[in-house]
Every structure is written in C-alpha cells, then in structure tokens.
Design a protein that fits this description.
7-stranded mixed beta sheet, 3-stranded antiparallel beta sheet, 281 residues
C-alpha cells in the first residue's frame, strides 16, 4: 500500500520546528522536498506512514530527543563545489592575505568556512593557501563548521567521487589528491597535507554564542543566507562579525546581498565586505 502523503498540518509542525531550531525558511513550496526526504527516513526506521512518525516525534519527548538530529539533517540543502565562484579565492590571495602579511595581527592567518557542507570549499581554501605558502612561508588554519552532522562526517573523510573534482586544475590534483587503490571505486581523497589544515566542527547559526576561540582574518559565508529571512540574516551576520578582526574580510555568495542590514561592514567588491568595527560615541 502506498504511503499517504505528508499532510499540510504535519508539514506545518515540522517546518515550524525546523525554522525555530535552524532559522531555515520552510515555505509550503518545500513540502514535497521534505516529504521525499522523510520517506527515506521512514524506510530506515521501518515505519509505514508519516502519521506514525509525526505522532512519535511530537508526543514522545525521548523519541524526539533521539531523532531530532536526523530530522534537522534532512532539512539542510548541501550544494557545493570545489573552487565555486573562483574570483573569491583570487581576492583572498590578491588582497586579504597580502594585507594580513603586511600587518599580521597574530602568527597564524585564520580562515573560517561558515556553512562548509561536505567540505569542498574548506579543502579549496586549504589548497589555495598551501599554494601561497610555497611562494612565501606563513602559518594558516581553517575552521569549517556546519549544522548538519551528516555532511560533517562526510567532509571529515575527505573522500569524493571523481566526477566532483572537475573544477580542480590537473596540476593541483596531482599534488593534493590521492587516487583510490581500487580502480573500480572511482574515488579520490584529499592528501594528509590538505586534511590536516582543516578543523571541522558543529555549529548552529542560531546559537547565542559560537564559542570560537580566536578572531578570524577571513570568513567564507556563502550560499547560507538564502535560507534565512531578513531578521535572521541580521542576527546571524551580526554574530559572525563578533568573531572578525578589524579589517578582516567576509565573503558571501554573488546571489546574496547584505544591503539594508545594519552591520559593521564595508563593501569592497562583488560579494566581499571588510569588517570596520564601530567605535562608541
């Protein structure tokens, strides 16, 4: 028997919880998407109907506590690529990094990949900075965070299908990627010199405190704001700015805009902003 579809009332309950927990907008147009992803979860749990899952989730606190991580993982969309919007990596090496080198605020150039998904962006940053380090030595570290534990686990392996590495130049593949010993696997893995430069961590942008120990010199916060409404964008970017050094750069996606938000940031180019802390009057 075919499983009855997710009802509007059931979707409303799930979407309200998701929006309240993650800040992700879940309009009615997302109902089919959530239903499809929940269908896979029902098969894993050997449940027959959305009604059964909904009933247990919202009326059994112990079940919800055990299951909520799986539900939230289903709600996140994780589209990313290596060297996506490549001009940002050029700006990082042409502008952000040279400015830091001329007046280093610390001995380590710190970059935060905020919303790292399956890790392609974080590893792109590592490869980019390793290339710069060959030209003139310096120390750097990359923090990569995401709210989805599912994609974090994948990112930490550093393993990707061969079709995913198309944007990586051939010479960089030879230096920084390892082929699987099994020719049938058609997989590659980031070399240890790349993986060791990235530290992955779980972070929900709606958390009141992010707990970052060191201020950042650059933040890549790309293709995340599109899932938030404007008040949540204001709230989240304000918190991110608290972890930026004065003069640090924030990169957003070209499809995203900070226009109209009250932030201590100055536009420096396409989807690039510089942190300019406000002084008390």
């Amino acid at each position: 028997m075919e499983c009855p579809p997710l009802t509007a009332e059931q979707f409303e309950d799930f979407s309200t919880l998701i929006a309240g927990t993650l800040g992700i907008k879940m309009p009615a147009s997302k109902r089919v998407m959530l239903q499809s992803r929940l269908q896979r979860r029902l098969r894993e749990l050997e449940m027959e109907t959305f009604a059964e899952y909904h009933e247990r989730f919202f009326h059994d606190p112990a079940y919800q506590a055990a299951e909520i991580e799986h539900l939230l993982n289903l709600a996140t969309t994780n589209k990313t690529d290596f060297f996506r919007e490549p001009d940002h990596f050029e700006m990082l090496t042409r502008d952000t990094l040279p400015r830091w080198r001329s007046h280093p605020a610390s001995s380590v150039f710190r970059v935060w990949c905020a919303g790292c998904s399956t890790g392609e962006e974080a590893y792109t940053l590592a490869i980019t900075l390793l290339e710069q380090r060959e030209q003139s030595p310096f120390e750097f570290s990359i923090l990569a965070t995401d709210v989805s534990t599912r994609v974090l686990h994948q990112a930490m392996t550093g393993i990707y299908r061969e079709e995913r590495i198309g944007p990586i130049a051939h010479g960089l593949r030879q230096k920084y990627l390892l082929r699987s010993r099994d020719p049938e696997a058609r997989e590659v893995r980031m070399a240890p010199v790349v993986r060791e430069r990235v530290r992955f961590g779980h972070l929900n942008f709606l958390a009141p405190e992010y707990g970052l120990r060191e201020p950042m010199d650059a933040v890549f916060f790309r293709n995340v704001m599109i899932y938030f409404d404007r008040p949540t964008q204001q709230q989240v970017v304000t918190r991110i700015c608290r972890h930026l050094r004065a003069g640090a750069d924030l990169f957003t996606a070209h499809s995203e805009s900070l226009q109209g938000l009250d932030l201590p940031l100055q536009s420096m180019g396409p989807a690039m902003y510089r942190h300019c802390p406000r002084t008390a009057a």
